[in-house]
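pipeline/complex-builder :: batch 7 item 3
reading input block
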Amino acid sequence: MTYSSVAAFAAAITFSLSVAPVPVFADGSPTTTSQAEWIAITEATHRRVVEMRFDDAPADILPTLLTRVDLYDNTIAEVRFDHSQSVTPGEMGVGSRRICVFTDGRILVEPLLVYDPPRAYAYTVDAEASTMSLPVSEIVLHYEFRDEGNGAHLTVNAFYDPAIPGTGVVIEPVLTGTLRRTFQTATEVFGGAYVGDARP
Amino acid sequence: MKLKALMIGALMSLPFPALADGPSVMEIITFDAQPGASADAVTAALGPIEAKMGQYGTLIARSVAEGPAGQWTMVNYWTDRDAMNRINEEALTWPEFGALPGVANLETLQMQQIDVSTTIGLGD
């Protein structure tokens, strides 16, 4: 890279920083790309972070986790997809709807909000289209994968708001336990290790 | 699992018209008590929840038992799966649940539902 191209590059960065709003949280702290992504997709106020690693690379483990929930959650009998509302109709994309069919026949319809393989995906729950009810008014699960050379590190951010204010004291531990057991099972089934979970 | 002799409300039959119908679902719920929580404290917290669940006429019988290492097991018999699902979905939002996190580690709460066609010893 020549000096002039470096200067032009620096100028371009400076220009873009000066005209593009830098995403920040309400407290003014800057965000990473994924944090900006979260802000764009949810206003939920509760969050739980789950960390784990997989032996497979992000390009391999991302589609497996997204499409084979039935392999690591024994309450789910079948997973279907409806791509009719995808931004790329007929193919997996933002707007695609994952339909988890539980062993008792109830369904949970989960529209994709982010689909950026092999880096990330996120989904919410369409409560009106689902026959299973959750005690939350909003829920978003954001999956972000990092290639570690010999596998993938996955960070799942679960955002939610209790359906009824004041019930978070009950809902948070129940949701935490469910997330923990589900992802512990995923690492056992697909090969990997559960790292931990926390409330940031 | 071998449960400690302490049995709380062993297979208590609930006096509702729904008793005319046998249960179609058995539900097994387990959780660990919070460290230091006494059996009396756990049962005191469960009492109001059980009373509320009993108001719908779809909970036929229920037993609560404490295990040897502070694990608690509840067995509920429901008239039907839809009623059970509806009440379970609502239950997490009930004020009656408010005291439970203080005595029960809800991160360990697990539920399993099993379809049943015949039961013995439920007072029928």
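note: Residues 72 and 186 of chain A are 5 Å apart (CA to CA).
queue -> next item
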